[in-house]
# Entry
Amino acid sequence: MELIVLAVVIASLFIIVKNYKIEEFKNINLKQKEIFRGDLLNHEAGLLVALMAKVAKADGKVGELEAEIIKHTFTDISTHFQNSQEVRENLKKLYDQEKDSFANLITICERLYSLTKTDYSKRLKYMEYLLNLSFIDGDFSKQEQEITEDIAQALKIEQKDYINLISNFENFYKNRANEKALSLEKAYEILESNPNDDDSNLKKNYRNLVKKHHPDIISGQGASQNIIDEATKKLQEINEAYEIIKKNRGI
# Structure
């Protein structure tokens, strides 16, 4: 069964980077960087970030790993623009704007559907990405289930495909839970740290490793499924190690 890694994670996703009107939407050549100053909510990039914001905040909190993944996703998207820093700042502003509002959820989904209505596989990839964000903290809450169900219906994702994605993630995290717990010594090894490192250095190492293993979701690198699965496992291992050390240190 296929599994998409975060933040993850979806090497085959393509993000709009031209200032097309909806009716002019087309796939773009990611090797060609464009200057972008349009309305992000008219493009897949902004619509995806808006949905990410709502999914991440659905259970009322955004975990540390979720925050790191979202931050690197902003960077991934913005690097495909000439005015990358401006786009990154606008994506962050959009995220902050959308994370506490759910009233326009269906409107956002309808816009995204209008851009991708002839490409079901792409919408399914977006759904995988959003579900992975929901599951990344190891807990698929009732609120997260409800919002992803609404998104799936609005994007016209077939129920069997939605259920299959849920099953894939549930099985993955169940298998992770059944694996032998990491020792404190192993946790430091995974984080490329040692017990003498202060909390600041520990957090820096954690963030660097998340960045290192966070795939560019819009590069279209075409990573094979086994590579994607390994990346998912590594990201979870890094997070588990960090949580073990934080608990041991009382931070």
User: Anything to note?
Assistant: The chain has a mean pLDDT of 79. The CA atoms of residues 14 and 30 lie 8 Å apart. The chain is about 60% helix and 0% strand. The radius of gyration is 18 Å.
